[in-house]
# Entry
Amino acid sequence: MRQIGRLLGILTCVLAGLVLDANALRAQESGQDQSLRVDLELVLLADASGSIDDGEIFFQRQGYAEAITDPDILAAIALGQDGRIAVTYVEWGSAESQEVVVPWSIIDGKASAEAFAEKLMAVPRLAFGRNAIGSALAAGLALIEGNAIDGYRKIIDFSGDSANNWGGLPVEVARQAALAADVSINGLAILCRACESGRPVAYDLEEAFEREIIAGPAAFVVTADGEQSFATAVRRKLLLEIAGVLDEESFRQRLAAAGYDAGAAAR
# Structure
């Protein structure tokens, strides 16, 4: 009886596999695409290393929450061919600490943007440890390659107050892997927040980002050197990434050419 039970169990598994294979074949034959098309896959890779305290963690998140719901950002999304983007927010620290704060989310208008922003502010701090930039970039690439989303463009949006790598994967290895996968890396160089203490490092942080971290033909670095500057820099960076333009003037020209009312996106 025990052998019969085992045989029945094996037969059940085989039949289940055949059903799954048949369903997959029918989907393939009917032309169904299991991936979701978007204009952009965007990993927001935010610094949560040891130099960032809890207050700064949520200050950063607030900047991204406000930017993603900005009328111009919503207009940039709407101008895309698919009218939607996929975004995930990840905080990075040590080589063992890259934590997804908000998983892949489709943003296609005000409601989905606000839902993303709400989730972003609701999660406690998750990442800790000394800078492991290479491991952080590798985690961002893994998130892009491991999803079921088909983005016309793919970007890792890296922020940090240092270009030092104290462990984990070498930055250049991770950078080259992103380039090989046709994934661009842009940077937000955080010079200071309150600014009483000056720049966080003695070297030229923007130049170090340009030389060692960013990647891709249209990659760029945006600088933040204070609380108000941080919010402005995040908004500008997202606008350029989502709209796929080199400057805000080009975005305005696209808006005018499309006859699009940016204010309508916020209503």
In short: The chain has a mean pLDDT of 85.
